[in-house]
From TrEMBL:
Transmembrane segments: none
Cofactor(s) of this protein: thiamine diphosphate; Mg(2+)
Protein name (Swiss-Prot/TrEMBL): 2-hydroxyacyl-CoA lyase
Organism of this sequence: Bifiguratus adelaidae
Family statement drawn from the similarity comment of this UniProt entry: Belongs to the TPP enzyme family.
Catalytic activity: a 2-hydroxy-3-methyl fatty acyl-CoA = a 2-methyl-branched fatty aldehyde + formyl-CoA; an (R)-2-hydroxy-long-chain-fatty acyl-CoA = a long-chain fatty aldehyde + formyl-CoA
Top-level lineage group: Eukaryota
Domain Thiamine pyrophosphate enzyme central: 188-317
Single GO MF descriptor: 2-hydroxyacyl-CoA lyase activity
Subcellular location: Peroxisome
A GO BP annotation: fatty acid alpha-oxidation
GO cellular component: peroxisome
InterPro entries associated with the record: DHS-like_NAD/FAD-binding_dom (IPR029035), HACL1-like (IPR045025), THDP-binding (IPR029061), Thiamin_PyroP_enz_cen_dom (IPR012000), Thiamin_PyroP_enz_TPP-bd_dom (IPR012001), TPP-bd_CS (IPR000399), TPP_enzyme_TPP-bd (IPR011766)
PANTHER family referenced in this protein's UniProt entry, alphabetically: 2-HYDROXYACYL-COA LYASE, 2-HYDROXYACYL-COA LYASE 1
Length: 567
């Protein structure tokens, strides 16, 4: 005799599932999975558990699994499912549901979960007999990472979970990696011809290339052709940012002037300004590599479509002989010279903002801002090495951190992604630490973004994960107010909707949840906190960094200008 829970657990184990992120009430399924040798990380909110699962899917290249209760558990977990859909990451959400003979009767936590998840998934199904469970799970698991990656959902009714089955239930074996797809040789030919004729070619490396682990092939392409490359936020590190052909610091110029763009695993959506004017040269010829034919020509007509698995397509380009890869001449190409010059200028600007010229006393006593705080972190921690994984969220925090912190290798940086989801940081950091047990996870987050999921500090403490969370605290969303401006705004009844309570002690939440906390208001305090937190081996650490609340730009709110006028 076997139960549906055991069949589920044995199937997942056999398919290769090593860890499940979730929250369970009556833990029959979770306990069966643990008994089958699968690690279970129990979260405090399904939202973070599902974020963890989709991040694990991105990092591992296999579906990240999330297990929740039905009804509200599925609704909360939908956050990660939708995030996986928008980012095209493989994920499998499994939830319990009401007994098959109670459907429609107003059962406990009843929801038509198959219907609810269907628009956000590649596949959503419900077995109605124990012996069907392996087939449904295998289909969902496979569908999540074969073809274009994305989320899937499986519903397991309560009577199946607890039910007994006496016959033989064959358990599916582990699946081989997704079959590789090659691009049409004629299109390879056309792509190389376009590149041969380009004066200002540009490679854009997206997170699809990171996901596909195309690190070596893209490096080979770039080295052989001398074509400059621009990583998207999560394409960073695939070729180290420090590479001389990286033009991340000259992004605007590169996009505006490139005449041929080789787009590798990146979509022409808002992140790349829809591939057109004014931010991208509207006359540029575009060669697009993607696994999904339906992605080709979205928002901008491309000139050559290379549909296939990125490492394979790059190999086709790298090894073609007639025509072969062109090579830009570093000493004669004005394109390369101009970009290199621009990169240098912009890097110097950033460097000056991080390390302004000031007396040692000023540097020690002055309030920090984004750049000066990041400058301290950059010197204190080995950020640009493969020892560190960067998790980044929060609007300004993420934007500015992206330009300050170089990334040393592929898949070492995760952020709010295509969906611009704030609140992913804790789930992502936990997933990253589970996937990379010997690396340090450094999460650089805004105060608002951190607030979405701060309770997951308890999850991290319970799991013994030494996450290093640096909260860049400016008392608000985008920016907040100083203590006295806040009090005045309360009194005048004109508190902006983006303000948060000044100087909230996020560090103390860490202490209360079994972690460690530091409050840093200036350079020496931040340096000391980073040193002590870096030495921590088992507990999550929160460094709450108070920065100037005014934000990086002049405050644009009418109320602010009004109060300034009054002054
Ligand atoms: P970015 O945010 O870096 O611009 P996107 O998420 O917009 O990246 O785009 C990634 C693209 O990569 C998606 O369109 C996806 O279909 C594609 N992709 C994912 N895996 C592969 C693969 N193995 N081979 C080719 N393309 C892939
Ligand atoms: Mg903030």
């Amino acid at each position: 005799m076997t139960t549906g829970a055991e069949v589920t657990a044995r199937t997942l184990k056999s398919l290769g599932v090593e860890v499940i992120f979730g929250i369970v009430g009556i833990p029959v399924l979770a306990e069966a999975c643990i008994a089958a040798g699968i690690q279970f990380i129990g979260f405090r909110n399904e939202q973070s558990a599902s974020y963890a699962a989709c991040c694990y899917g991105y990092l591992s290249g296999k579906p990240g699994v999330c297990l929740t209760v039905g009804g509200p558990g599925v609704v909360h977990g939908l956050a990660g499912v939708a995030n996986a859909q928008v980012n095209h990451w493989p994920m499998l959400h499994i939830a319990g549901s009401c007994d098959t003979d109670q459907v429609g009767m107003g059962a406990f936590q009843e929801l038509d979960q198959v219907e609810v998840t269907r628009p956000y998934t590649k596949y959503s199904g419900r077995p109605i007999a124990i012996k069907q469970i392996p087939f449904f799970l295998e289909t969902a698991y496979k569908t999540a990472f074969y073809g274009r990656p994305g989320p899937t959902y499986i519903d397991i009714p309560g009577d199946l979970i607890q039910g007994q089955f006496s016959g033989n239930v064959p358990i599916p074996k582990a699946l081989p990696p997704p079959p590789a797809v090659l691009a049409d040789p004629n299109a390879i030919h056309a792509a190389l011809q376009l590149l041969q004729n380009a004066e200002k070619p540009l490679v854009i490396v997206g997170k699809g290339a990171s996901y596909a682990c195309a690190d070596e092939e893209i490096l080979e392409f770039v080295q052989a052709s001398n074509i400059p490359f621009l990583p998207t936020p999560m394409g960073k590190g695939l070729i180290p940012d420090a590479h001389e052909l990286c033009v991340a610091a000259a992004r605007s110029k590169a996009l505006k002037e490139a005449d041929v763009i080789l787009l590798i695993g990146a979509r022409l959506n808002w992140i790349l300004h829809f591939g057109g004017a004014p931010r991208v040269n509207a006359k540029a010829k575009i060669i697009q590599i993607d696994i999904a034919a339906e992605e080709i020509h979205r928002n901008a007509r491309v000139d050559v479509a290379l549909v296939g698995h990125i490492p394979n397509v790059l190999h086709q380009l790298n090894t073609s002989t007639q025509p072969s890869l062109p090579k830009l001449n570093a000493s004669t190409s004005s394109w390369l010279k101009e970009l290199t010059q621009k990169v240098k200028e912009n890097q110097e600007k950033t460097e000056k903002q991080c390390y302004p010229q000031e007396s040692a006393q000023d540097a020690a006593s002055k309030a920090l801002n984004y750049h000066t705080a990041f400058g301290v972190i950059k010197r204190a921690l080995p950020m640009n090495t493969d020892q560190v994984v960067i998790v980044s969220e929060g609007a300004n925090t993420m934007d500015i951190a992206r330009s300050v912190f170089d990334v040393a290798a592929g898949r070492l940086r995760v952020d709010a992604g295509t969906f611009a989801t704030m609140g992913v940081g804790m789930g992502f950091a936990i997933a990253a630490q589970i996937y990379y047990p010997s690396k340090r996870i450094v999460s650089i987050t805004g105060d608002s973004a951190f607030g979405f999921s701060a309770m997951e500090l308890e999850t991290a403490a319970r799991a013994g994960l030494p996450l290093l969370i640096i909260v860049i605290n400016n008392n608000g969303i985008y920016h907040g107010l100083t203590d006295s401006d806040f009090s005045k705004a309360v009194k005048d009844n004109n508190l902006p909707s983006t303000a948060l309570l000044p100087d909230t002690r996020y560090d103390m939440i860490a202490e209360a949840c079994g972690g460690r906390g530091w409050f840093a208001r200036n350079k020496p305090e931040l340096e000391k906190a980073l040193k002590e937190a870096w030495a921590e081996k088992t507990k999550p650490c929160v460094i709450n960094v108070a920065i100037v609340p005014g934000g990086r730009k002049k405050l644009e709110f009418a109320w602010q200008n009004k109060s300034e006028a009054k002054l």
